[in-house]
Amino acid sequence: GEDITITRELDPNTRLIKADRGTLEQVVMNLCINARDAMPNGGNLYIKTESLTPDKDELDRVPGAEPGEYVRLTVRDTGVGMSDEVIKQIYDPFFTTKKAGKGTGLGLSVVYGIVKQHKGWIHVTSQVGKGSVFQICLPVPSSETNREISMNLEKAGTQTNNQRILFIEDEEKIRQFTARGLTQKGFKVFCAATAREAEDLFDSHDGDFEMVVSDVVLPDQNGVELVEKFLKIRPELKVLLSSGYTDHKSMWPAIQEKGYNYLVKPYTLMDLINAINGAIHA
Q1: In the CATH hierarchy, which fold is given to the domain comprising 4-142?
Q2: Model confidence, pTM
Q3: Is 80 exceeded by the pLDDT of residue 21?
């Protein structure tokens, strides 16, 4: 926004990493959007890239961090900040956007998943009322690691063939983030925030979708009940349901009984694409 000053310090000599460009662009975009939302009255956004060989103290600070060469991305804001309790939840693999609700917490589970998929780590520091600092470290790969990451990311981009997907997610930022990523991978995505919107889209397109991807918990209806309506009209429709860990536990018996494909949140874009491809081509 016009009340936010952006400062960039980008090192042109950083080492190359092996990663999916579109996915990492989503990471940067997500962090910047969250920083913007944390500064409703304006402020400063600082973005920096640099090469890094972390010392023992820095490695000890982050669980699972390995020695080696890295590229570090820093995104710092002067926004509302986060409490220690919220920061601890960021490192929980079942930390979901619905728990956070607004501000800096939105979408961090997705960022966390993508960074872990690239064998990196994310370190967060924050002070309530002063702002937050997000540091993402991604490894400069050896040739062996390079091949492994390349194979995984290439797999995620295969077999799309412009399949039409009805994507239902009530969290706006997660909906936009995921839709952009799926579109970049070749899918035709139609988005809805509620069951009612999804039904309207389904009717207006005469049910012409290969797949429906829906959150289990929607504002106006249960996702399981919604897809059952669609299947009565289009029995060959593929289904993928998703939700956070708590919803997963309570809804699992019904989902298992129906035999629907299921993906626990938070998931990475690659996780979702692989699940979609697996369901469509099963």
Answers
A1: Heat Shock Protein 90 (3.30.565)
A2: 0.52
A3: no
